[in-house]
Design a protein that fits this description.
alpha+beta, 204 residues, elongated, 5 helices, single chain, binds flavin mononucleotide
């Protein structure tokens, strides 16, 4: 069976490549890995999954960062239960990453403010409207009328900080899958907070 030359050959190489790809995807908006599916335990008992932008990847501490509105359903879900699943799929590389992670939430603290300072005024817009997911009889953005048609100035965007939150996800396990015509490959990595890390090949 012919080995795909892009397939990492060792578990160590897979782990290194995975974090390298995620770190690159933070800055590359065209990367399929720029968008993750973040799944939490819904308050109604159903798994709750949604797309989120990957904002930072710390390869040393194995953490990923996402931004959200502290009034969103996901924020309340993560406050109640910080366990999350995070899914990435790159159709070009035919790579799937399925992480388990523990989420830490930041809002109104030094960590959230430091990140907020780096968020462009245009991207702060979503934090200036009504609470996301609020029922409405008409399709509304919830933004002040004057901001419907233009991005806010830095001054106008400032109040958004009170709704801004970061989700720091500490990765504790990865189910890695690579699809290849020469043979699929699957591996599992565990990085428990207390205890030794481990890695093993799995039958795909
Ligand atoms: C491509 C894409 C990227 C998104 N990025 C984010 C994001 O970074 N943060 C966020 O809170 N919502 C993001 N959303 C919206 C969420 O998917 C979701 O609709 C919203 O946050 C409400 O989710 P919730 O009710 O489960 O909290 C994104 C949606 C899409 C389609």
């Amino acid at each position: 069976m012919r080995e795909d030359p892009t397939t990492p050959r060792s578990l160590e190489e897979i782990e290194r490549q995975c974090f390298l790809l995620l770190a690159r995807a933070v800055r590359d908006r065209r990367s399929a890995l720029h968008i993750a599916t973040l799944a939490s335990a819904g308050r109604d008992g159903f798994p709750a999954a949604r797309s989120v932008v990957l904002r930072a990847a710390d390869t040393t501490h194995r953490t990923l960062r996402f931004h959200t509105d502290q009034r969103s359903a996901k924020y309340a879900e993560l406050e109640a239960d910080p366990r999350v699943a995070i899914l990435f799929y790159d159709p070009h590389a035919r790579l799937q990453f399925r992480f388990h992670a523990i989420a830490t939430l930041h809002r109104g603290d030094a960590a959230a403010r430091a990140v907020w300072d780096g968020v462009a005024a245009g991207s702060r817009r979503v934090y200036l409207g009504l609470p996301p997911g609020s029922p409405s009889p008409t399709p509304v953005s919830g933004l002040p009328a004057e901001l419907e048609s233009r991005p806010p100035t830095a001054e106008e965007s400032a109040p958004g900080v009170s709704n801004f939150a970061t989700i720091e996800a500490r990765l504790i396990a990865l189910d890695w899958l690579h699809l290849a015509s020469g043979g699929h490959r699957r591996a599992r990595f565990v990085w428990p907070e207390n205890g030794p890390s481990g890695a093993t090949w799995l039958v795909p």
